[in-house]
């Protein structure tokens, strides 16, 4: 068409670019083993190493997540190809300062750093920040596919226009939120006196508030619920069925310490403090120091720094909140709060989702950290995570 000669070298160079930065569709049914041959086998081997390292470091098996291994292999193939051509540590731009994806991949970023360690141990080469962030995105999509344990809600509907209108509202709600209600029974307001309080969780009514005299928490709606009111049914009623307290109990966080007005001398001093305070032995002290010294500014957002210490190095599960006496700077990023945590995920993928959603919310809004600091205990964590479910994808099946 353009009468331009393109030689074999240019064609091969373009083909290499496509291979190195290939975004392999995880929904495709292509035979990757046939397409990539030895590259596929090497990618599979590295992913196996990665999965084992996460089990060892955090006590969580990622293969419990549907299609996890397949997606991880597909994400690994382009990195292996880059490695073969000396490109694996080459970033296409300054990812740490320019890539906004990072703040949406809190736990994914920490797990993805294990890939860099594996590459360095096996090939004596680090991979680029771009590859780490991209792989973190793959891990994050896996985490967001994890379902929380859910107990269907037992609800009551009472509509002033009568039972016929009440049954219409019931059908509308059940059609939109299939499987979220164990029961959704329709009563006249006066009939509710005969019901036992323990038999239901929540009431949906459109009677005047002064006429409602029952113990169940309630939500007011119109004769025909608006879109906003239907969303409120999800946010205020259905999400109460997500068993977050059960997950928090399983995490078995022994300590949740809060330090107000903490005087931070510098980051190196803080790393020493954390290492000596929580390490289970002298070797672990050095390991914690080494890993926290490699921390990137990608773990600072909205004046909040979150540090995840691998559980294999610590004596207990813990979360600590440091409200600094004054704002500090680390590699041109300002922060006012530090959250340090070390968690054994009890080989329960819902626990992984919980910590991921918690980190996401602590990054998104500084007020969440301030709320926990003012409350002075761990109980507020579940409500912060529950709030995240209004924003993040969630399956209640």
Largest sheet: 5 strands, mixed
**Beta-strand content estimate:** 5-15%
Number of helices: 15
Average of per-residue pLDDT values: 88
SS-based structural class? alpha/beta
Kindly report how far apart the N and C termini lie. Answer: 54 Å
Low-confidence segments, ≥5 residues, pLDDT <50? Answer: none
Portion of residues in helices?
40-55%
Radius of gyration: 25 Å
Q: Let me know the number of strands.
A: 9
Concise structural overview:
With about 400 residues, the chain is α/β, with parallel strands linked by helices. It has helices at about 10-20, 30-35, 40-60, 70-85, 95-100, 105-125, 130-145, 165-175, 225-235, 245-250, 265-280, 280-295, 350-365, 365-375, 380-390, and strands spanning about 155-160, 180-185, 200-205, 220, 255-260, 300, 305-310, 320-330, 335-340. It has a 5-stranded mixed β-sheet with strand order 5-8-9-7-6.
Write the layout of secondary structure elements.
Blueprint lengths: L7 H13 L11 H5 L1 H21 L9 H17 L10 H4 L7 H18 L5 H15 L9 E6 L4 H14 L4 E6 L15 E4 L12 E3 L6 H11 L6 H8 L3 E8 L4 H12 L3 H12 L6 E2 L2 E5 L9 E13 L2 E10 L6 H16 L1 H10 L4 H9 L9
Parallel strand pairs: 1-2, 1-3, 3-4, 5-8, 7-9
Antiparallel strand pairs: 6-7, 8-9
Describe the structure.
It is built from 15 helices and nine strands. By secondary structure, the protein is α/β, with parallel strands linked by helices. The strands form two sheets. It has a five-stranded mixed β-sheet with strand order 5-8-9-7-6. A four-stranded parallel β-sheet has the order 2-1-3-4, with helices on one face.
């Amino acid at each position: 068409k353009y009468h331009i000669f393109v030689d074999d070298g240019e064609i091969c160079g373009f083909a290499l670019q496509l291979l190195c930065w290939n975004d392999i569709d995880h929904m495709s049914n292509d035979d990757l083993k046939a397409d990539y041959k030895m590259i596929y086998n090497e990618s599979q081997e590295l992913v196996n190493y990665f999965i084992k390292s996460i089990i060892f470091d955090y006590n969580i098996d990622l293969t419990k997540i549907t299609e996890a291994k397949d997606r991880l292999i597909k994400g690994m193939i382009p990195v292996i190809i880059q490695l073969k051509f000396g490109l694996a540590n080459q970033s296409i731009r300054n990812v740490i300062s320019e890539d906004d994806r990072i703040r949406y991949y809190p736990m994914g970023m920490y797990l993805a750093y294990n890939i860099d360690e594996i590459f360095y141990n096996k090939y004596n080469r680090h991979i680029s920040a771009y590859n780490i962030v991209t792989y973190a995105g793959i891990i994050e999509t896996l985490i967001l596919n994890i379902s929380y344990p859910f107990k269907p809600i037992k609800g009551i509907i009472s509509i002033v226009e009568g039972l016929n209108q009440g049954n219409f509202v019931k059908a509308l709600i059940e059609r939109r939120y299939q499987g979220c209600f164990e029961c959704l029974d329709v009563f006249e307001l006066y009939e509710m006196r005969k019901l036992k309080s323990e038999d239901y969780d929540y009431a949906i009514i459109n009677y005047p508030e002064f006429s409602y005299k029952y113990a169940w928490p309630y939500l007011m709606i119109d004769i025909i619920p608006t879109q906003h009111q239907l969303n409120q049914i999800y946010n205020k009623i259905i999400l109460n069925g997500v068993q977050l307290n059960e997950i928090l109990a399983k995490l078995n966080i022994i300590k949740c310490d809060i330090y107000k007005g903490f005087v931070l001398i510098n980051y190196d001093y803080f790393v020493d403090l954390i290492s000596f305070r929580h390490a289970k032995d002298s070797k672990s002290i050095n390991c914690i120091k080494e890993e926290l010294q490699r921390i990137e500014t990608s773990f600072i957002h909205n004046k909040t720094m979150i540090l995840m210490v691998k559980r294999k190095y610590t004596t207990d599960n813990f979360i600590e909140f440091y409200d600094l006496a004054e704002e500090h700077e680390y590699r041109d990023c300002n922060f006012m709060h530090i959250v340090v945590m070390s968690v054994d995920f009890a080989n329960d993928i819902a626990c992984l989702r919980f910590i991921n959603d918690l980190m996401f919310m602590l990054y998104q809004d500084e007020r969440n950290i301030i709320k926990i600091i003012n409350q002075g205990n761990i109980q507020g964590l579940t409500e912060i995570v529950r709030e995240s479910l209004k924003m993040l994808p969630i399956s209640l099946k």
